[in-house]
Amino acid sequence: MILRLRYGTSLLTANLRGLRCQELKPRTTHTALPLSELVRSALEQPLTGLPLAALAAGRQRAVVLVPDATRSASLPDVLPAVLERLASAGIPSESTTVLVACGTHPPVSASEVSALVGLLPPGVAIVQHNAHDGLALYPAGTLPTGLPVRLNRLLLEADLVVAISKVQHHYFAGFGGGPKLVFPGVAGYEEVQINHGRVLDLAATPPQRHPACEPGRLAGNPVAEEIAVAAALRPPDYALLLVDGAEGKPVWSAGGPLEAAFPAACERARALFEVEGGPFDRIVVSAGGAPRDHTLIQAHKALDAACRFARSGAEVVFVSACAGGTGSPAMEPFLADPRPERILAMLAEHYVQYGHTTLRLVEKTARFRITMISALPTELVARLGMTPGGDLAAVFDRWRAEAPGATVAVFPGPPVYPVGG
């Protein structure tokens, strides 16, 4: 078998001859409609409530909330259908803003934003959320946990908010998309850090991760539950949710109020992305190519998912270009000395979400033998506990010599998860 793995904008190939390949990927949906039909159905036949065009009638100022490029939602194909319905309802283009929910990610160049959203009608504004811009934020309320929440002013000032997102497993918040487009998508940096910090119980001895902060789990998950309450401070009036299939393209859609559409999308994601398999001693995992493997922060999610199928001590080959480097300057202090005890001490003093990402990564490098094929500096890869590599064929030759006919689990992307966590 010739293995082909996405790597940045290219492919890596290698021959698996002499080894047994078990590919783990999302379940195939043979009855998926074209994307245009999925979108039309979601906008005109909501799970409950009015279709978007009817809901928009009489509204004066609209915000269309969309994810950034790290969580793209086929926007060049989806946005036109949404904007057409807003225009048909009488909302002028000059009163419509596309707000990119960057979360804590930095804004990108104008050309990158244009590529993300596609061609927009004249007059429609594009704004990237900046979590550090206090002038763009306004108090939205205080949560029962005591957390004060600021949200982007544009969201709070609009009398119609439409949110477009893909729903997928998230490695500690249960699921991405849905309410996460509001919080942390267009929230302030400080409150996002406090929320994400609930993934760790730093008061425990030793500090430990909250057991309910797992992919696919919402109930009892303190991060997910707080996200849902924060998003309810200004929920979307209409949510258009998509779920991808095995090829990384949408195969399912739903529209309507977030409280109806999000649970339905989560169930569909579970049905497609939770699979049986393992434990395995040899694994090859691709982060799925660009944009999923553009940074280490994003690519780590694929490694986290694949390692859930690994036996302790397993050998894992991690294929991820990481042409954009680690992904955030906030990660750099934790990379300088990435020992788990040092990271925990730093997080106890001041929680930073990408410190937690670094902690999760070195926890895996302590449990598994990981070879990373990437564009990251080899010194950094080694410091994180991985072996810098560049040749899949050499790894497979060694595996054939060590254990002829051995099973190799291949995760080509998108990530999949064990059934039931």
Can you offer a commentary on this structure?
The chain has 421 residues and is of the alpha/beta class. 50% of the residues are buried. Strands 3-21-17-18-19-20 form a six-stranded parallel sheet. A six-stranded mixed sheet has the order 6-5-4-9-14-15, sandwiched between helices. It has two domains: 2-24 and 277-418, LarA, C-terminal domain (2-enoyl-CoA Hydratase, Chain A, domain 1); 35-272, Rossmann fold (3-Layer(aba) Sandwich), CATH 3.40.50. It has 14 helices and 22 strands. The longest helix is centred in the middle third of the chain and has 16 residues, at 258-273. The chain has helices at 35-44, 52-56, 75-88, 110-117, 153-157, 189-196, 222-231, 258-273, 296-307, 332-336, 340-349, 353-367, 378-383, 392-402, and strands spanning 2-7, 10-15, 20-23, 62-67, 96-101, 125-128, 137-142, 148-152, 160-166, 168-170, 174-176, 200-201, 208-209, 238-244, 250-256, 274-275, 280-286, 310-319, 369-373, 387-389, 407-411, 417-418. 32% of the residues lie in helices and 26% in strands. α1 (35-44) runs parallel beside α3 (75-88) and α11 (340-349) runs antiparallel to α12.
Give a quick rundown of the structure.
The chain is an alpha/beta fold and 421 residues long.
